[in-house]
Amino acid sequence: MSAVARFDLKMDVEEKDVVSRAAALVGTTMAAFVRTAAKEKARELLDRESRITMTAQDFQAFTTALNSAFTPNAALQNAIHAAREVKRA
């Protein structure tokens, strides 16, 4: 069985009336209605924030960079050399 956590919510009378009427329309309790609506909105937001969007031009530059041969810059070459030295020690 999953753990249960409590979440208290205060709302004004008008908000409560709107939520109560909406919950009644779908045949559920206010708590279930709010829980479902909050979970749907949270998942939508988390899904949207986990995606990277870019223009076609940016996507082309990205794929070109991924498909091109990799050449480390001087700083990375120095770091690789230093790591090899530490490994030998």
- Pairing-aware structural class of the strands and helices? mainly alpha
Overall outline = elongated
The whole-angstrom Rg is 26 Å
The overall average pLDDT, rounded, is 93
Multimeric state: single chain
Total of DSSP H or I helical runs spanning 4+ residues: 4
- What is the total number of structural domains? 2
Count of individual beta strands: 0
Proportion of strand residues: under 5%
Low-pLDDT sequence parts: none
Largest sheet: none
Distance between the termini: 52 Å
Distinctive features:
89 residues, mainly alpha, 4 helices, 69% helix, elongated
Mind explaining what this structure looks like?
The chain has 89 residues and is mainly alpha-helical. It has 2 domains: 37 residues; 33 residues, no CATH class. α1 packs across α2.
Could you give a quick summary of the protein structure above?
With 89 residues, this protein is an all-alpha fold. Helix content is 69%, strand content 0%.
Secondary structure topology:
Elements (H helix, E strand, L loop, with lengths): L12 H14 L3 H20 L6 H12 L6 H15 L1
Helix pairs in contact: 1-2
